[in-house]
Amino acid sequence: MKKFTVADIEKAHEKVKSGADFPNYIKEIKSLGVIAFETWVVDSHTNYFGTDDFKTTSDAHYDDLMIVDDVNIEKFTAYLKNHQKGETDYFTFCKHCAETGVEKWIVSLEDYTCTYFDKNGNTILNEKIPH
What we know:
CATH architecture: 2-Layer Sandwich
Shape: globular
Pfam family, one: DUF1398
Oligomer: single chain
Structural class: alpha+beta
CATH superfamily: YdfO-like
Protein name: DUF1398 domain-containing protein
Organism: Empedobacter tilapiae
InterPro entries: DUF1398, YdfO-like_sf
């Protein structure tokens, strides 16, 4: 089994300047052995998963954001599209997630999907990641 560290992942993440860089980041961390990750919008700590139940967790990246209870899918989708075009940085995207009721996202590197969830665990959006 290939083991990876948060430092390995953060080194790959340093190359990400906007959402437009996300597909290359996904390819790079998959090559490290990451099979999935779960990012929490509240502070951007992330659980990274590998094979054989391997898991590691990053530290918080910023002070806690308040995530609203009412989901606004239309506004979130517009923010996401802007982020994917490279129009916003990561922290701005996280603030937009909190503002529109997104609590976390889970990325599966096995099926190349990113699924966004609200505070009740409901799926807000499931999208394919280009690869």
